[in-house]
Amino acid sequence: MTSPDFGSHWPLHSFQHFAITECEKSSYIVETGSSFQINGIIKNNFDETGTTYIVIKLAFAENQHAEVLFDSDRDFTNGQKQSLRFEVAQNSERHFSINIPVDRECVLGTLDMRLELWSPGRLRYPAQSLDTVALFYRSPWGNGIDLISPDHLIAKAFFSYSWHSPEHLKWINELAQELALRQIRVIMDRNSVEFGQELTEFMEKAVSIPVIIAICSSSYTKKANDRKTSPSGAGYEASLLSNQILKGRFKGQIIPVIRDNPSKELPDFFNSALYLNMDVEHWKAKPLTDLADKIIKNNHLT
Question: Which one has a higher pLDDT value, 127 or 150?
Answer without folding.
Answer: 150
